[in-house]
Amino acid sequence: MLRVAVVGSGPSGCYTAQSLVQLDPAVYVDVLDRLPCPYGLVRYGVAPDHEKIKSLQNNLRTILEHERVRFLGGVRIGAGGVPVARLRELYHAVVYCVGAATDRHLGIPGEDLPGSFSATQFVSWYSAHPDAVDDGFVRAARSAVVIGVGNVAVDVTRMLARGAAELSPTDMPQPALDALTASRVADVHMVGRRGPSQARFTTKELRELGGLPEAQVGVRPEELALDPAYLDPTALPAAQRRNVEVLRDWAQASQTASARRIHLRFFLRPVELLAEAGRVGAVRFERTLPDGLGGVITGTGQYEEIEAQLVLRSVGYRGVPLEGLPFDADHGTVPHLAGRVLREGVVAPGEYVAGWIKRGPTGVIGTNRPCAKETVTSLLEDADLLVREERQADPLEALRAEGAEPVEWSGWQSIERAEAALGASLGRTVVKLPDWQSLMSAARSQGF
Ligand SMILES: Cc1cc2nc3c(=O)[nH]c(=O)nc-3n(C[C@H](O)[C@H](O)[C@H](O)COP(=O)(O)OP(=O)(O)OC[C@H]3O[C@@H](n4cnc5c(N)ncnc54)[C@H](O)[C@@H]3O)c2cc1C
Ligand SMILES: NC(=O)c1ccc[n+]([C@@H]2O[C@H](COP(=O)([O-])OP(=O)(O)OC[C@H]3O[C@@H](n4cnc5c(N)ncnc54)[C@H](OP(=O)(O)O)[C@@H]3O)[C@@H](O)[C@H]2O)c1
After folding, report:
1. Tens digits of per-residue pLDDT, 125-159?
2. Cβ 123 under 6 angstroms from ligand 2
């Protein structure tokens, strides 16, 4: 029997567990997560109005319900939890699938003014992450600037522009629904520092902005035309070409009156967040120009200010170091060779990585499947050596003896029942519990 700990129950952790039990009948997997709830960013990142993608949780559920897989929630590994070295003593192998939990910074003046947040903070709030803080995001805001043109920027822009009738059927926590329902944000500016052919959003997500019932999308033809690929996008890769075509259609469409307006802006590099009455009041951008076809831009020395009482910086995620594991600070990842953790350039036996902490914070849910498979292939190649190390029969007993109180699958199912009951009491469907206390008391009330 080979006992493997997978740390993190997001897509990469679940796909790692799946590959392990599929490829080797002698493997037993414990999937540990610091949260009492499984599924990582599928639960706490994928936008609540994307119900089809959210339903991937059902696929991940079947993995965690496999007879040789055990979910152990509420167990933090590293600082303040079970030390990395101790975990390695309890299992023949450990696979770290801890994702990329924090945001990248812009490094410009005013970035930390009240009213300026990372998209990560905003997403965590509307997704009911128990560590999220209700910072009154949309309160007192009429105009919002979203910096960045990736899919997360599209998500937060859409959440700001959606109306109550569209948000109410989601599993969004009630305080976030109430706040977004009362929101008076009428203008959302989503701003890219480069051109439309360099935008990172995907066409399906972009198009969705144009279909929002209560919002109108505006793009400026003169800004699009600065992009050398705009007039003849045929040489672009298909994904970028489709984006440019959608934007061109919008630039040519006539505008109608609408409660909310989404302004898609390009070739504007953020240089400063400007204060007004002690909080953010505007973002100052420098206009940029393309320098050839390679996507490089240069500043023009011309500036534009866009009014904003709310700024969401959506410029990518970043991995955080896990105490006891090596960390490449330049890339925000754990150094590895085909998934085997490298300590000072040398393979560390029995330690592996998969997902965003291995590759960096890019790629959709499905990208984590081949990534996990590569890691599992490495692990199983090492299995003959690893299995010779003597291990305690059941690591769960040792974890408990050392003070951990894992939330097992039945505890998670109690949380699910409590969320269904909360939804019914509010006249909605399932509504997520938004804080540690309510999650933990639901998890412990097995008879609920
Ligand atoms: C806002 C947002 C929206 C997205 N929407 C989509 C979408 O609609 N469609 C799509 O295909 N992709 C989407 N993605 C991308 C997708 O979510 C990622 O590809 C995927 O979640 C990465 O998987 P992961 O397992 O590496 O990390 P995660 O999903 O982040 O999982 C990491 C897990 O590790 C746990 N963990 C972290 N540290 C510890 C620790 N010390 N001890 C124990 N456990 C720990 C965390 O609690 C978490 O559960 C989105 C990403 C973001 C940021
Ligand atoms: N529906 C979905 O499928 C979905 C939803 C959400 C997320 N995801 C995936 O999750 C991953 C992460 O998405 P993401 O949106 O966080 O990251 P991303 O795709 O890497 O986009 C980051 C954006 O921030 C910009 N940026 C970076 N630094 C900047 C700076 N200093 N100033 C101004 N702009 C800056 C980038 O512009 P440059 O290109 O100029 O650097 C880019 O537009 C992606 O792979 C995404 O596809 C998928």
Report:
1. 999 999 999 999 999 899 999 999 999 999 999 99
2. no
Ligand 2 contact via 155 beta carbon (within 6 Å): yes
Output the six-digit token pair for 269: 């590099």
β-pairing, 346-353 vs 143-147, is unpaired
User: Cα dihedral sign for 25, 28, 33, 36?
Assistant: positive
Average pLDDT estimate for 23-32: 97
Which class for 288: exposed (0-12), middle (13-18), buried (19 or more C-beta within 10 A)?
buried
Predicted structure pTM score? 0.97
What are the residue boundaries of the structural domains of the chain, listed by start?
Answer: 2-101+319-406, 103-316
User: How many angstroms does the Cα of residue 59 sit away from the middle of ligand 1?
Assistant: 15
Confidence tier at 231 by pLDDT (50, 70, 90)? confident
Answer for the pair 10, 39: CB distance below 8 angstroms, yes or no.
Answer: yes
C-alpha distances in Å from residue 331, one per residue of 99, 337, 360, 375: 13, 15, 7, 19
β 187-191/260-265 pair status: parallel
Q: Would you state the CATH architecture of domain 2-101+319-406? A: 3-Layer(aba) Sandwich (3.40)
Is 237's pLDDT higher than 50? yes
The DSSP code for 4 is E
State which ligand 1 atom lies nearest to the alpha carbon of 365: 11
Residue 447: the pLDDT is: 54
Element (H, E) at 90: helix 84-90
Q: Which structure tokens are listed for 289?
A: 């120009």
401: number of Cβ within 10 Å:
8
How far apart are the C-alpha atoms of 338 and 324, rounded to whole Å? 20
43 Cα: distance to centroid of ligand 1 (angstroms): 8
Token readout for 241 is 């070409």
Q: Whose atoms come closest to the Cα of 207: which ligand? A: 2
What kind of architecture, by CATH, is found in domain 103-316? Answer: 3-Layer(bba) Sandwich (3.50)
**pLDDT on residue 448:** 45
* Alpha helix ranges (H) inside 189-309: 203-210, 221-224, 238-252
Q: Could you say which ligand is closest to the alpha carbon of residue 154?
A: 2
How far CA 310 is from CA of 135, 188, 283, in Å, comes to: 11, 9, 10
Can you point out the beta strands (E) in 291-331? Answer: 297-307, 310-313, 317-318
